[in-house]
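INPUT
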Amino acid sequence: MRVGVLTGGGDCPGLNAVIRAVVRKGVQEYGYDFIGFRDGWRGPLENDTVPLDIRAVRGILPRGGTILGSSRTNPLKSEDGIRRVKETLVKQEVDALIAIGGEDTLGVAARLSGDYGLRCVGVPKTIDNDLSATDYTFGFDTAVNIATEAIDRLHTTAESHMRVLVVEVMGRHAGWIALHSGLAGGANAILLPEQRFDVDQVCAWVESRFKIRYAPIVVIAEGAMPRDGDAVLKDDTLDSFGHVRLSGVGEWLAKEIEKRTGKEARTTVLGHVQRGGTPSAFDRWLATRFGLHAIDAVRDEDFGKMVALRGTDIIRVPLAEATARIKTVDPSLYAEAEVFFG
Amino acid sequence: MRVGVLTGGGDCPGLNAVIRAVVRKGVQEYGYDFIGFRDGWRGPLENDTVPLDIRAVRGILPRGGTILGSSRTNPLKSEDGIRRVKETLVKQEVDALIAIGGEDTLGVAARLSGDYGLRCVGVPKTIDNDLSATDYTFGFDTAVNIATEAIDRLHTTAESHMRVLVVEVMGRHAGWIALHSGLAGGANAILLPEQRFDVDQVCAWVESRFKIRYAPIVVIAEGAMPRDGDAVLKDDTLDSFGHVRLSGVGEWLAKEIEKRTGKEARTTVLGHVQRGGTPSAFDRWLATRFGLHAIDAVRDEDFGKMVALRGTDIIRVPLAEATARIKTVDPSLYAEAEVFFG
Amino acid sequence: MRVGVLTGGGDCPGLNAVIRAVVRKGVQEYGYDFIGFRDGWRGPLENDTVPLDIRAVRGILPRGGTILGSSRTNPLKSEDGIRRVKETLVKQEVDALIAIGGEDTLGVAARLSGDYGLRCVGVPKTIDNDLSATDYTFGFDTAVNIATEAIDRLHTTAESHMRVLVVEVMGRHAGWIALHSGLAGGANAILLPEQRFDVDQVCAWVESRFKIRYAPIVVIAEGAMPRDGDAVLKDDTLDSFGHVRLSGVGEWLAKEIEKRTGKEARTTVLGHVQRGGTPSAFDRWLATRFGLHAIDAVRDEDFGKMVALRGTDIIRVPLAEATARIKTVDPSLYAEAEVFFG
Amino acid sequence: MRVGVLTGGGDCPGLNAVIRAVVRKGVQEYGYDFIGFRDGWRGPLENDTVPLDIRAVRGILPRGGTILGSSRTNPLKSEDGIRRVKETLVKQEVDALIAIGGEDTLGVAARLSGDYGLRCVGVPKTIDNDLSATDYTFGFDTAVNIATEAIDRLHTTAESHMRVLVVEVMGRHAGWIALHSGLAGGANAILLPEQRFDVDQVCAWVESRFKIRYAPIVVIAEGAMPRDGDAVLKDDTLDSFGHVRLSGVGEWLAKEIEKRTGKEARTTVLGHVQRGGTPSAFDRWLATRFGLHAIDAVRDEDFGKMVALRGTDIIRVPLAEATARIKTVDPSLYAEAEVFFG
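OUTPUT
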């Protein structure tokens, strides 16, 4: 058996831990051969490969990023893409493919698996934790730890100067990182993409905090939106390259707070530091277990599935279901956190 | 409503986060009063209390330890203990009690609740993660992170000198910390209390590692035992005070490895650093949610219960069941890890 | 003897360690009384004080920020400011004043000491490390560690996506943080305020890096300037509040790199996280020693002086000299680093 | 020019940073060739080499340990050792040798350089910071940071249980790590090899601490000795292999404190974690600069010298002087710290 492995989408701490576990168990227990595809689906599309054996995965467990590289290339959007992917797999004599990625990467795997009979097993990866089929995805815990440490640091600077500090964390469509790091960091307001926020309410929380001589920290997901601010935000948040600007909603909010409360406010945008570096112990453990179970699914020829965490168990779910909808923060969970606002 | 709070047993990162959440929600949402009892069950036993209000819990979220102090005092073992506890609760006009602790502390709560009608809600706390009613206990993730960081550091020293490094981690009866930190740290052998180990097998793993010019790391739980080493170990592991010696099974194993393989071996005993300091983001989040749900149970007058984590939900389970048996590492989970040994 | 203490300017890890050392030694060895002034020179100006004794400094050693608060208030710029400061000191029966701060705060101390006979001892504080009279200031090592950790994290994300990552660190007038964190983090280009940079040169370094399949990291001080970019930068870097925008020179450079090389580039602005949180061991040690020597200077009635680090010794230098000019990065030091560029 | 490089003695964070800087500058600026010798002086003794070029040093800056391996092999003690070392150097066409190591490794370099005309440049390395010719050695700052973090963690556990915690840190002959981490961690007693300690005095400090409801932390260097405890200690501290036992003076002291004060005491021995893992930013910077200046010394043919830190400058000192005596903690520095005891 010869197994291909690829990693797609944004990088995420724990990718290398998955790759290592897949290869270690595949080689040692099942006697499989492996081949790595470079840069996600670009690898099979362009027949760009890298050798993958026990030696290649040595020492990579604690390393962030992915030794296979990553990209957002989508063969479904490329002319003749599917034919070229299949051609590569035949040429490379690949019997099964393990695709490690998020919604997009696994969506391709689901299509190739469902419609074209590709023998594919998926491993979920999203730092945003927004895949509905699994309790957690690896990378998320690391990101939350990094954001929480940053909030811890910002508390002292906020209090020394009696300033408002707005911390913008990742999360375009789901506010998991904001919710968890905001709770863990003792934020005085947490703003999510799931629920439009009211700037006056935020200002009220901010002011109630100053009344007891504490300086407020506001944690905001990059995808959070003010109740009526669409027009205002638009120009500010997209740059000439069409990227979301570094100076997004967090900076906008800090200025609004300054205007409305007269208090100094500063913004910190955590950005890419949240997704780099060595994975937390939880993420290494989860990624390793995902890898072990993914190669077991290959051995069981249980294709078209994705491994997932349910409680403390690793289970298998259909790829098609797994990527059907994103998992957002439930209103009841957000309501739980509100006791700490203000 | 006036609610008493106590923390018992070994200290654990996250205790303060529970106390803060209980008080914040209890005061702000339900208008309750609070009183803290000092040093676990010693507080109610000796009527030793400390004021507990919003101001008292400010800034304690990131702090390790417990502002209430802790002890292993057991009122069931003290003459007239139950009468004295009840007397204190009457004197202090306590309507309900939240007990935060492990098997022993919650065992007392279960007895007082079941046999004596005390209105009690439990919050599980054990750094060892060995309570069967909950997926995880807070403190565990912090301990695993600390142990993993230490293993990361030891890899470099092991490899520079081509030595065996034996790392002894916490876990008298259950090997969760050893299993998780061993997997996350890339250990070459993991030894648990749940399964007697064979020193020759360990030596074989160690030697296979040297053959590829890598230096092995062996992670061992303090409660792990060699297959036939009871007599040998006995004298070595208990000191004149009856404490388990610092130089326990880890040091013993390092010497055996030196004798049998001729390779240099060194031991590191992580000890109390595993249970101190600021909690990880996961533990702050879990402890905070436990606190919020514990005060909800009080409001619901749902006494005799313990809060617990099931998947990503906080549920309530009967105190009596919760403490009935310890949760050990399942052999299948241990078997999963074995692919990385040697 | 009654000694006043104040902390001025931007907050900085280690301020509390200085205060603690001053008070512990002052009370225990010399039997002095202390009084804290709130928010730098605003305290004496407005007679705003806070009690300061052994109990007040307990547990503050590892805490970032300052228990006395800080501000940039300058009594020399306030009408009648000097008279009001002197009045407060008489009213509070203060015999000597320890001022902990940077160029501005100590500049005031120098003036009050030189021209008005105030009995004043200074302790240097600048996270930027740009005071000429001392080898290092506390806070700097912490900031460099935080920036280095961030760069470590960004390496993995840069490499997984083959992107350029631009990291903007603190340093308006001196590039010490950029130089040290860039060297420690293995940056492929380091840009300082001391020397205008050539965007084409930066692009050449960036491209030489891609040629060997590595992704480049560019570390840039917030005060660095392109050779010919003044006009271009101006509008982009000041916001409507007159603050330097979050999206400053780093973001500008990332866009230029994208334009000129066609490679994707991203920016991370570390911002306030660099100055918050617990001080590094070096900063705690340095701040503590500064505190011990400052109170010794008071006892010796050696006023008008500032404590400073020279090698491993703490010495005293005249306040007037100490604040005369800022210490910038020597061209020879910068040249040393250039071997790692590209 | 062909330059050999070796690393000897105990491993130390920053070794790889030196090697990288030496090779990067040597190749890029001076066009030199390099060859690595394995495991310190064992390499030249046994002609055991490893290729060393730009590619070999890629990515090693943040990695602990040494890619060249290390040992305590001393060619002066080996029969015919000097002849064999010289033979290897001739055979490998080595024109100059950079030896990175502590007292022993550099002592060999000094002898070979002085008596046998070997063209040798030394780089000082000792985690203990006890080389007299340099203000600091790399590795020391990392060790102090790790020990300080551990002390921070132990404070919370000490206070929750009102126990004494004894922390044993590295330092056989000099107490620098104990002094710096003890000061930075807020220890209530610091015990060094330089000055015999009085157990009753330690107990008095411990008890004065409990009186104000704080739990004491005692930091002790592994080489510290009680005033009259030689006989007592002897049997306890050497094991059957002749190694210093894990359970050394720290554990002995904890027991004495228990006996004399009746308070519970626990010991933590930090051990090898202090010397492993990624170097601190300071150590990466210092090690990098040492490397750059060492290769400059080779280019200047300024042999028989060691690079050293003096203030913020890197200077060169004669190898012979550099290793003549160890640098111990000055009594005046220790006296400074005493204000925090008790």
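end of record. Confidence is low (pLDDT under 50) at residues 237-246 of chain C.
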